Amino acid sequence: MIERARAARDAGLDSLFVGDHHSVAVPYYQNTPILGRLLAEWNDKPAGCLFLLPLWNPVLAAEQVGTLAALMRGRFIFQCALGGGEAQFAALGANIKYRPSAFEEAITIVQRLLRGETVTASGRFHLKEAAIGLIPPEPVEYWIGAESDAAIDRAARMGDGWIGGPGLTLEQAQRQIAYYKERCGVHGRTPAAISIRRDIYVGESDAEAEAAADKVIRQGYRGFSRDMIIAGGVNKVTDEFRAYDDAGYTDIIVRHITVEQPKVLASFGRLNEVREALKSK
User: Fold this and answer.
1) Most exposed of 18, 62, 83, 143 (fewest Cβ within 10 Å)?
2) What average pLDDT does the segment 64-88 reach?
3) Handedness of CA 251, 202, 146, 126 (dihedral sign)
4) pTM reported for the whole predicted model
5) Could you tell me the CA-to-CA distances from 197 to 16, 81, 86 in Å, in that order?
6) pLDDT, tens digit, for every residue of 229-255?
7) pLDDT value of residue 184
8) CA–CA distance, 226 with 244 (Å, rounded to integer)
9) Of 239, 278, 200, the residue nearest 14 (C-alpha)
């Protein structure tokens, strides 16, 4: 992960993010400590964590963000979502049925705390005069991951930006961004970012990238089909990224489909070429 953060920095990528999972059977570096380490390899561009908010005490989440924002040189972007998986919720003592209400209460509390307010609450979370000592030096942006219509409406109403899911085809992504923009208009909000997560690999050639993609799909990669993955040489990936630009997305958050470290690091280097090609549009 340290090598990948360096590769992303050297490739000139625009932001650095880590995810959020709990009680998993494989080694998983938890979001706030690993981001703290990766910031030592990063620069003054934005960085942030994903928080599955119904699984977090909002005071603890705000304190973690305040600490990271004090350590970093760039702006903190707070990514958040409902989360899923009954086993994950049960392991943390959370009720999956209350995800929407817990999420809405938690994000409101986090936003207030990170603005320096003192918060008392008696809903899903019981707090009395909670406050945090480290307030981010720059305003935090809140990007909400959402896939259902109800969740996309919530993102338009409560967030600064939206994150489209990685399991969307281009056609589905086009429909969802249209709906998100419509709901932003209804709620009188102008989004700061409209992003989408894509699982990718930039290969040395189209043929080499296709071979890598076919290999992971045959192994049942996250249940994704080929049209949910972007894989190819620099020109092919640039063209596919441009389709999301044309649809109105401002950011593509990438995750590599291969775990082979040399391939991942080389792909990061080629992403620099993709980024430069997109800038010259």
Assistant:
1) 18
2) 96
3) negative
4) 0.96
5) 13, 13, 23
6) 999 999 999 999 999 999 999 999 999
7) 98
8) 17
9) 278
Query: Are 65 and 52 in contact, with CB atoms under 8 Å apart?
Result: no
Give me the pLDDT at residue 42, please: 98
Domain 2-145 class, CATH top level: alpha beta
Q: Where are the beta strands (DSSP E) in the chain?
A: 16-18, 47-52, 76-81, 119-122, 126-130, 141-145, 161-164, 193-202, 229-232, 251-256
Q: Where are the domains of the chain?
A: 2-145
H/E run at residue 60? helix 58-71
**Residue that is written with structure tokens 């600490």 in the block:** 67
Strands (E), 9-125: 16-18, 47-52, 76-81, 119-122
Backbone angles phi, psi at 128, to 5 degrees: -130, 115
Check: CB of residue 26 under 8 Å from CB of residue 71: no
- 184-205: pLDDT as tens digits: 999 999 999 999 999 999 999 9
- Euclidean distance between CA atoms 169 and 229, whole angstroms: 8
Cα 140 to Cα 226: distance, rounded to the nearest angstrom: 35
Return the amino acid letter for 229. I
- For residue 72, the one-letter residue type is M
* Of residues 275, 215, 258, 199, the one with CA closest to residue 15: 275
Residues 196 and 244 sit within 8 Å (Cβ to Cβ): yes
pLDDT band at 281 (very low <50, low <70, confident <90, very high): low
Place of tokens 């590599």: 256
Smallest CA-to-CA distance from 138 within 53, 78, 52 is with 78
Task: State the chain's mean pLDDT as an integer.
Answer: 96
At residue 78, the 3 state secondary structure works out as strand
What are the pLDDT digits (tens) for 41-62?
999 999 999 999 999 999 999 9
Burial of 69 (0-12, 13-18, 19+ CB in 10 A): buried
